[in-house]
Amino acid sequence: MIVVFAGLLLRAVVVLTGAALATFALLWHAPGDPALAIAEARYGQNVSKEVLDFIRVEAGFEDGFWTAFWAWLAPLMQGDFGQSSVNGRDVWPDLVTAMSYTFPLALVSLALGLAVSLPLALIATRRPGSWLDRGAVALASIGVAIPAFWLGLLLILLFAVQLGWLPAMGAETTTHSILPAMTLGFGVAASLTRIIRSGILEARGQPFLPAFTRRGVARRDIARDHVAPHAAVPVVTVLGLELAFLLEGLVVVEVIFARPGLGSFLVNAIFARDFPRVQAVVLLAAVIFVVVNLAIDLIYRSLDPRVSGRDA
Amino acid sequence: MTLHVRGLSAERSGQIILHPTNVDFKPGERVGLVGASGSGKSTLGHELVDALRTQGASVAHVPQSPDEALDPLRSMAFHWREAEKALGLALDNERREMLFNALRIEKGDLRKRPWGWSRGMQQRFVTAMALIGVPDLLVMDEPTSALDPVVAAGTMDLLEDYLKDRQTALLLITHDLGLAARRVSRLMVMEAGRIVEDAPTQQFLASPKTRAAKALCAHRNWLELPC
Amino acid sequence: MLTVDNISVRRGVSTTLQEVSFSLDPGRTLAVVGESGAGKSTLINAILGLVQCSVGSVSWNGAPVSQCRPALVMQEPRAAFNPRLSLRRSVMEPVVAQNLAVGSDRLATLCRALEVQPDLLDRRPDQVSIGQAQRMGILRALIAAPPLVLFDEPLSALDAVTQKHTARLIADMQEQEGFAALIVTHDLGYAAAFADEIAVLRAGRIEEIATAQSFVEAPQTEYGRMLRDAAFALGALERVA
């Protein structure tokens, strides 16, 4: 067990280092002059060559790729996320503020998606192949294909502009989160519905189920004790991937609904070539990924111990 | 109390797998149901158990392989408790110990999931579960084909010992007449969804009447003996 | 002649086969019996060259056994065929793979001998009965006329009557073609009826090896006796007192 855990931990470290390195490299080689981008973000206007050279040295662009990378990585290993290249503020507090806007939205969207997909999948599987079932699958397939930005704009148009029921932009009140949560939740519901549905159908097809009926076990107990756990296994596995979809969607949704949060934090930092801020967000995302997948791995192994013991 | 079942039938995608059939079992009777693959014997076993359950009779079914009887995600203890509950019985450790001893699985760790036990032990566990409620009829579907001969023979002997002085009737479904003939007092032969012959074992072996019965008889063991 | 000379197969820490030796002449049948996990499948894989022997060698007439291109008949006929290919293509595969010139009359002759209706060959494995599929498996094994044929539980997936029938066909083919046959089976009745010699495999070792008749009448080891008594209990062998 300890060996397994150590292996997973090692994998996590590799993933994080790789993500950090890859992002740093992409940003470093991105087109355009990074010093110019920083200058624009900082001063908002054209600056003299001396100022640009100063920025170049200050930000470490003169030092070469690996020196600059190490200059970022070394303090990080001691818990120091550095300062923004644009306004010199510490990265970590601003990151936490951004998180405080984004995490609640993510959780609400996930909950909304689950709240919709679970009953929908159960209804669909009541009679597989029926119109209800096929309709649900079609709806889910369309939902997966709809891009978040399109849906978001559509919802703004309908509920904010036409009907005036809900606010279009900003994050002042909880009401402001309704449309963004709906946008994201829709995508989550769409993909979860399909997974839960196929999980249930597959679980129902297991060869040993008739024996339990013949033994006199009640239908409800069979569903709860022998179908649901099996159906949960693929669903739990996919939830990890759902997180990817959610994080990506959050960036888009925050920009569209003009909400402060990790999305806008990241996007603005990229435009400004603000290396420390970009790296911080990417690292955070990577850590979230690794932790969630670790948790899912452990849950999966506890549900179905046949999986444990072989780590490849 | 004799068990009577009338009108067992089954069809799948428009094809009749089991023609309307009636069967009877006297208390403690040992009956064999033999036939080639595809003759419908497993189906008859399933329909029989379902029909008897609706009648309210106490009946149990042991499938061919433990994969068809046990949930790999649940412990053996869970399976046993669930079976007791399903029969409306209270948890009874003595009964469990007695059955486990009878089927030689007392060393099995109940906390394990099915795949933590050997296949032979899994099959005996399923058999023991079937005996919890002291059924009027125990239906065993191909009890030996998924097991090694040594394990299979052992299991059959243990079961026979257990049932010796009890009123539980046994229906042994198999494609192997040699297996059935040694352990049952009455033989039924199935062909194409119908019971075509039904006779006491000695009489059956001495003079099989139908074509299917004769074929089975002629091939009942490896060293060809006149039937 | 097949010579298995003191082979041992090790996988990691465990030894699946240990000091296994025997020989087999053309036209003769050796049955290898034993419980699951005894190493019967490993033995077949070692003879086929699919598994490396850490010690010892397997040879045919002095040369490495792979040179005689031994064929294999597997337990589950439907799992032994590519489900997407027609049976004809699968059956002819050994010929194609070995680049042999085999006339269509060979296929026709084998079909007749194995009671396979030629039009069934154009079907896919799931479209024929299990008995038919197994006979096609035998056909595929014999099409290139190998001198050695291995059988891994060839009858276990079949019902009692079909088993006897297929066993008879295998024996007839052996008489016609003259191949050496090594049959792995847990059915001692089958081994007793059709093998010249019986080898008992237990935990990777040959516990005893004897002619079929003498083994059934008087097994030399306690384990052998246990196997034989189980066969009686299951009705596979009939006591002729």
Draw up the topology in text.
The complex is a heterotrimer of chains A (312), B (227) and C (241).
Chain A lengths: L1 H27 L5 H10 L5 H11 L5 H12 L14 H36 L4 H15 L2 H15 L15 H27 L4 H6 L4 H38 L5 H10 L3 H29 L9
Chain B lengths: L2 E10 L2 E11 L4 E6 L5 H15 L3 E4 L13 H11 L6 H10 L16 H12 L6 E5 L7 H15 L5 E6 L2 H5 L4 E6 L2 E7 H6 L4 H8 L9
Parallel strand pairs in B: 3-6, 3-7, 4-5, 5-6
Antiparallel strand pairs in B: 1-2, 7-8
Helix pairs in contact in B: 4-5
Chain C lengths: L1 E10 L2 E11 L4 E5 L6 H9 L6 E6 L2 E2 L6 E3 L3 H4 L6 H11 L6 H10 L16 H13 L5 E5 L7 H18 L2 E5 L3 H7 L2 E6 L2 E7 H6 L4 H12 L8
Parallel strand pairs in C: 3-8, 3-9, 6-7, 7-8
Antiparallel strand pairs in C: 1-2, 1-4, 4-5, 9-10
Helix pairs in contact in C: 3-5
The name of the CATH superfamily of the largest domain in chain C reads P-loop containing nucleotide triphosphate hydrolases
**Gyration radius over CA of chain B:** 18 Å
H/E series of chain C: EEEHEEEHHHHEHEHEEHH
If classified by CATH, what would the architecture of chain B be?
3-Layer(aba) Sandwich
Sheet-strand content of chain B, in percent, reads 15-25%
Structure overview:
The complex is a heterotrimer of chains A (312), B (227) and C (241). With 312 residues, chain A is mainly α. In chain A, 76% of the residues lie in helices and 0% in strands. Chain A has helices at residues 2-28, 34-43, 49-59, 65-76, 91-126, 131-145, 148-162, 178-204, 209-214, 219-256, 262-271, 275-303. In chain A, helix 2 (34-43) crosses helix 3 and helix 8 (178-204) packs antiparallel against helix 10 (219-256). By secondary structure, chain B is α/β, with parallel strands linked by helices. Chain B has a single domain (3-218), classed as P-loop containing nucleotide triphosphate hydrolases (Rossmann fold, 3-Layer(aba) Sandwich). In chain B, 36% of the residues lie in helices and 24% in strands. Chain B contains eight helices and eight strands, in the order E-E-E-H-E-H-H-H-E-H-E-H-E-E-H-H. In chain B, strand 1 (3-12) and strand 2 form a beta hairpin. The model of chain B has no long low-confidence stretch (mean pLDDT 91). Chain C is built from nine helices and ten strands. The radius of gyration of chain C is 18 Å and the shape is globular. Chain B binds chain C through residues 36-38, 144-145, 148-154, 156-157, 175-182, 215-216, 219-223, 225, and chain C through 35-36, 129-130, 156, 158-165, 186-190, 192-194, 226-227, 229-231, 233-238, 240.
